[in-house]
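Journal club prep, notes for RB
We'll compare a predicted complex against what the paper describes. Inputs for the cobalt (II) ion case:
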Amino acid sequence: MLRFRSSTIEIKTPAEIEAMRVVGRMAAETLELVDGILRPGITTEDINTFVHEDTIRRGAVPAPLNYKGFPKSVCTSVNNVVCHGIPGPLKLKDGDIINVDITHKYKGFHGDTSATFYIGEPSPDAIRVTEVARRSLELGIAQVKPGGRIGDIGAAIQEYAEAQGCSVVRDFVGHGIGRVFHCEPQVSHVGQYGRGPRMKPGMIFTIEPMINLGSYECEILDDDWTAVTRDGSLSAQFEHTILVTETGHEVLTARTKPLLLSERFPNFPQI
Ligand code: MF3
Ligand code: CO
Ligand code: CO
């Protein structure tokens, strides 16, 4: 029943919203700093070390570490990896794309954000999947306003990404977030307008579309975490933590400057 479904979604108090602003900004700052260390030759373990230390330096805790047994402090998902890539000895090379997904926990509250970065010179395929994922997140966020439905978000993303010849991953969804890392609502990145729980001021959730160049089907590797595209095609993702406000929305993980390796890469074709 709809009344039951929306009532399970927490409405944050003004004090909780302020705490979510603080941790959201912190996670965004760490992600901005990651942009500065990415280059061919570094390993995903190096990224983990950097994120871990920068998080601790801020007095925050990297929420992924030991979350349901996840062994590292950040997810690093390269090329055909859809999400939940585990940092390790893999060296980044020219032409790779990598999603870095950061979640800080500070004073009990979580801020969750990710971006896909280009390493060196990107291929046309890498540009296409990454720019479609970036725009998908923007279009999803644009649907967030009081009175709208959670299904509006996935509908807008699916409509756009499929029109661009890409596919939208079904196996992983955005999520409510606060004191709990993952809670209601589930925010599917595919869907229908006018369906799902009604958005209300004070709700906070992530939108984090994973866009594949080929089919949307995923497989989990033997490490029980790494999700890859079944067909080996490239996958890209962007994520923000979003507050529903009285008039629309506020991006709690907004960046203050453009990412050098991604939003500022020269000569992007306009998609
Ligand atoms: N940050 C991921 C998300 O967007 C979750 C990572 S859980 C982990 O929801 F255990 F893999 F870190
Ligand atoms: Co998330
Ligand atoms: Co995340």
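Talking point for the session: Helices lie at 2-7, 14-37, 44-57, 124-142, 150-163.
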